[in-house]
Amino acid sequence: MAFVEPALAAVSQHGPMLLLIEGSRYVLGSLAVFLLVWVAFHKKLAARKINPPTPRKRQIRRELAYSASTVLVFVAIGIGVYAGAEHGVFKFYPNISDRGWAYYIFTIVFLAIVHDAFFYWAHRVMHHPKLFRHFHAVHHRSVNPTPFAAYSFNPTEAAVEFAILPLYVAFVPVHFSAIFIYMWLMLLRNAVGHCGYELMAKGWTRNPWLSWSTTVTHHHMHHEKMTGNYALYFTWWDRWMGTEHADYHERFDKAVGAATDKANAAAVPAE
């Protein structure tokens, strides 16, 4: 078959580099969030734990194992993107100066907006009873997730999740480094979203300038209730489609309120 030799050449050329990039991003990003939230600031954040008790080591091992398979899926798709770019299928440009810094930043911001819409609808579809077991069931085994659940997917879901990248670069000219930066931001945001501790400030969900951004509570409730709150970065689609949980604001207030009350109590001098 004519495509076998070029495919093997692409794997040999790009595979090791992409494996290093994808693997290190997951390990370093999720581990950094874990060490900061679960270890370094564990005591200070104890009152912000959304849903105790803390998950067991067995769950973390499962999240790591499935995340490893997700990295391999991402690498496989990444190889295809690199090979496609070499043949002009995807729209990468070589120098930032070719289009300027304003366009460079735009491509990252616009990708986040497009990805959020893609994620919302793909996520909802994967919750269909006929698809859930084949695509999304693994991720929902982490009812009370840890940062390591960021990539804990069925291989089929991993392929759907990463499909946004080739779809985007098929239509929007992008610099390779913009994609690199975005993938780091996505991983860190995803790890924080699964950390189980509410990190946002009191009043966040009711502030018109801040409420458009999802909180840890927002996604944690999705894991807890197995439905609703489907969004990735922004609350827009859940609000527009009526899928945001009615008690979202109350759950957020409870998580940050307990921490605020504890801090205020500690600040009151003893008589």
What is the typical, i.e. mean, pLDDT? 91
Figure out the total of helices: 10
Beta percentage is: under 5%
Q: Tell me, what's the shape?
A: globular
Largest sheet: none
The topology string of helices and strands comes to HHHHHHHHHH
Distance between the termini: 84 Å
Rg on CA atoms, Å: 20 Å
Please count the beta strands (DSSP E, at least 2 residues each).
Answer: 0
Structural class: mainly alpha
List keywords for this structure.
10 helices, globular, 271 residues, disordered C terminus, 62% helix, mainly alpha
Describe the protein's architecture and organization:
This protein is mostly helical. It has one domain (4-248). It is 62% helix and 0% strand. It has helices at 4-40, 57-86, 100-126, 129-135, 155-162, 164-169, 176-193, 216-225, 236-241, 248-267. The longest helix has 37 residues, at 4-40.
Summarize the structure.
With 271 residues, this protein is mainly alpha-helical.
Architecture blueprint of SSEs:
Layout: H1 4-40, H2 57-86, H3 100-126, H4 129-135, H5 155-162, H6 164-169, H7 176-193, H8 216-225, H9 236-241, H10 248-267
Helix pairs in contact: 1-2, 1-7, 2-5, 3-7
